[in-house]
Amino acid sequence: MLSSYSEYLIHKKWMQQAIKLSQVAGDAGEVPVGAVIIDSSENIIAESENRKQRDNDPTAHAEILAIREATGRLQNWRLHECTLYVTLEPCPMCAGAIVQARVGLLVYGVDDPKTGAIRTVTNIPDSAASNHRLRVIGGILESDCRSLLQTWFVNRRHRVT
Questions:
Q1: Mean pLDDT of the region 44-69
Q2: Cα–Cα distance, 130 to 108 (Å, whole number)
Q3: Dihedral sign for Cα atoms in the order 149, 85, 50, 16
Q4: pLDDT at 158 (0 to 100)
């Protein structure tokens, strides 16, 4: 839940950056997902896009790569004073990593009806297995994020057939 319009504008700014990264991923043949992590002073700590195909690494999701970069940069595995922006609701693997990294706030663009593990298919942060209470805001620039993903998948299907 957003407390003010100015808070929405901040979230919109960082989600736009995540969308730019997702476009880079899509242009490279990856599922277009981007992630940005900022600190409490609104400085970018890390950013990444999906690299699963390019790196031949099933864990190379945007969120995982951004978390790795952020924890390395901060020299601390706890990201409790950071906000993670990601264009698509995280999958179970990423939701688990977000909880394990103690991310302070997760902001995502669009729900994932197939593998969403924050609130759509399952809810890892609020499960009994979670030892961290993650604050979550969904739906920031939702239509932009949805459109990007839908367009990418339509184009991908046309290239395959």
A1: 98
A2: 19
A3: positive
A4: 77
